[in-house]
């Protein structure tokens, strides 16, 4: 009886190989042949699961997004039920930062993919809705200013988008070696102190 193969599992194996190639050599080195060699499968098998490089790249991007989501969900779950909004927000944002080697490897690939999607926006239709949901969630955690201050201040959605942009910038600095994890988390804490003052 022939062995049954789970197509999702096989596609994930290939996507993992793509991410290793991208992390080690950059996205420009990604080809069906290189990915097949890294995965230990034939180029024909890669083509069976992904008919184009763009399709393979889009699937790998979804794997990177899933890993990031899983990292955030695990960090938040460790807080237990009903954490205070500031602690929940800090934990969520810190989990987005590439502070350890595993997160740095994913971060390098995610950054390369984001650059790639700037040239191929149709390959990543889920990025915009994911970002909108994340900004809305962050905005819901931010303290509401008194009515008089709210008129002069930044709307919660704009403050949330700014906070998310700060974290993405800190992530880039961490990946480039300009900041240490301690510096990045200190900047994040300072911004949260301003927002929750």
In angstroms, what is the radius of gyration?
Answer: 19 Å
The backbone outline, from C-alpha atoms, is: elongated
* Low-pLDDT residue spans: none
Count of distinct strands: 0
The fraction of residues in strands falls at under 5%
Helix content: over 70%
CA distance, first residue to last residue: 66 Å
Mean pLDDT: 85
Structural class assignment: mainly alpha
Largest sheet: none
Number of DSSP helical runs: 10
H-E order: HHHHHHHHHH
Topology:
Elements (H helix, E strand, L loop, with lengths): L6 H19 L6 H8 L3 H7 L3 H25 L7 H12 L4 H19 L7 H15 L5 H6 L3 H21 L4 H15 L2
Helix pairs in contact: 1-2, 1-4, 1-6, 2-3, 4-5, 4-6, 5-10, 6-9, 7-9, 9-10
Task: List the defining traits of the structure above.
10 helices; about 200 residues; mainly alpha; single chain
Describe this structure in words.
It is a single chain. The chain has 197 residues and is mostly helical. The protein has helices at residues 7-25, 32-39, 43-49, 53-77, 85-96, 101-119, 127-141, 147-152, 156-176, 181-195.
Give a short summary of the structure.
The protein has 197 residues and is mostly helical. It is built from 10 helices and no strands.
């Amino acid at each position: 009886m022939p062995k049954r193969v789970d197509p999702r599992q096989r596609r994930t194996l290939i996507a993992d190989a793509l991410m290793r190639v991208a992390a080690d050599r950059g996205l420009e080195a990604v080809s069906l042949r290189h990915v097949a060699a890294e995965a230990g499968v034939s180029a024909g098998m890669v083509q069976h699961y992904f008919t184009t490089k763009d399709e393979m790249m889009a699937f790998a991007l979804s794997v990177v997004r899933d890993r990031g989501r899983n990292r955030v969900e695990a960090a938040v779950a460790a807080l237990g039920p009903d954490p205070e909004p500031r602690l929940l927000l800090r934990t969520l944002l810190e989990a987005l930062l590439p502070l350890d080697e595993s997160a740095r490897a994913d971060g390098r690939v995610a950054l390369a993919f984001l650059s790639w999607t700037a040239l191929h926006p149709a390959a990543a239709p889920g990025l915009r809705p994911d970002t909108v949901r994340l900004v809305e969630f962050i905005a819901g955690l931010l303290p509401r200013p008194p009515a008089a201050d709210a008129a002069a201040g930044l709307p919660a959605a704009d403050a949330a988008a700014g906070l998310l942009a700060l974290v993405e910038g800190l992530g880039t600095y961490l990946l480039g070696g300009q900041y240490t994890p301690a510096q990045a988390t200190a900047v994040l804490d300072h911004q949260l102190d301003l927002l929750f003052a």
